[in-house]
């Protein structure tokens, strides 16, 4: 799960495994595999960075466990 911030300042927690697309135009749109879409304050690059960190953490947990 990753934390993102909606344009109104609300923090949301998103299942990073469900992210299908991240688009910068100039706002950042996140589209999930469920076809839900929302706009966040973070850049597309930051969303990708957080998603990659989440995936790395999962792999480390599976190796350690």
From TrEMBL:
Keywords: Cell projection, Cilium, Flagellum. It comes from the Bacteria. InterPro entries: SwrD-like (IPR009384). Pfam families: FlbD. This is Flagellar protein (FlbD). It comes from Polystyrenella longa.
């Amino acid at each position: 799960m990753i934390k993102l911030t909606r344009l109104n300042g609300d923090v949301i927690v998103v299942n990073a495994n469900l992210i299908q697309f991240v688009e910068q135009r100039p706002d950042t749109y996140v589209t999930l595999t469920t076809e839900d879409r929302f706009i966040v304050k973070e850049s597309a690059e930051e969303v990708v960075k957080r998603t990659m960190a989440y995936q790395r953490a999962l792999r480390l947990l599976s190796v350690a466990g």
